[in-house]
Design a protein that fits this description.
By secondary structure, the chain is mainly β. About 5% of the residues lie in helices and about 65% in strands. The protein contains two helices and 18 strands. The chain has an 18-stranded antiparallel beta barrel. It is globular, with a radius of gyration of 21 Å.
Length: about 400
Amino acid sequence: MKSLAQYLIAGVLLSSAHAYGQGLLALGQNSDYSQNLPLTFNVTAGGGYDSIHYKSATDQNVDSAFLQAGVGFMYGENHKPTQWNIGGDFGAIRYLDDSQRGDDLYYNARVAFNITSEISRRLKVSDNFYLTYEIEPDYAIGASSGLRTGQYLYGYNNFSVAYAWTERFSTTTGYTVDGIKYMDDKLTSSYEDRLTHIISQQFSYKLNRTTSLTAEYRYGITNYQNQPSGGISPDSRSHYVLVGVDQAWSPTLTGSARVGAQVYESERTHSTAPYAEGSINYALSRKASVRWYGQVGFDGAELDQYDSRYTYRTGITGSEQVSQKLALNGGINYVHSSYKGNSNISDSSDNEVNLSAGFKYSIYQNVSLDANYSYSTISSDVDLRDYNRHHVNVGVNAKF
């Protein structure tokens, strides 16, 4: 199973003013090993305003200015046969107005490490690691709750071994583990804390220099830390049977897609449904790029009392270096979730949208002014989940 973690370090850790969280870690591949990355440190300080309004439980609304600060680092080497990079950022955010929903001081810490080693001309070993301690929900990967529910710890690691049996035929064996644990909200923790293991075997046949066909089987196990008292366990198993293609239309336009079926089994239900995932990376120029992702399948997040959750996720992000001093970025994520009920709870559905836009303006050679705005909303059949959020932050970032 290929991984976006190789560009996660660029998209997440190199932009500490507003990091994007987990990202779709299981889709596509885009190498950040094109050049050496000297050891670089960055310091960020700033503030903004956060407005969170819920359709019900209005005493939980948030309308507050905040201050934030953070430090980060990044380093990488492109010396074959082993290429690697590492990065991290660490910071805190302080809300100035008291909120009845959670604390006023929050912390975030993120670390990513990616390494690829060519043991021989045929054998390649890779590992992609990502760990975050934060508060913000992530709409791309969907590991966390769509609502902001306090600090959580999320980790991901993918280890893979690829072997080229011939010039055209190769196999990749992978093992992925990821998990999440909520630290503040005991109610959310009671049904969200979980650990997932996925074993995958991929077969790839290269038609030509730009096109590879794939066939893949995955087996996943999700175990929840807290089992319902007297209820039916949400622990699940999934079988994936997929076919796909990896395509490089040009040096600037690449894509990856997998389609097939997912068999989802638990003590609550047994279902088979289509599964698909895909990504496209397009470098419009040396100064502008666009990335798209999509995924359809069963989801283990926010399951609670429901028998299953089936989601459609898609998103697009882009960036452009308008001039030597000014860079723009933006993105949109959309998630539709269908929850299957039972005798205790009715079927329901959610629609989640996250919009973001920002800019970076270089004041001096190593100092920039960063500003970001994001809008998030959930429209749900369950009133307790409906909310709207506006988030603005402005800061100064210095690199050394």
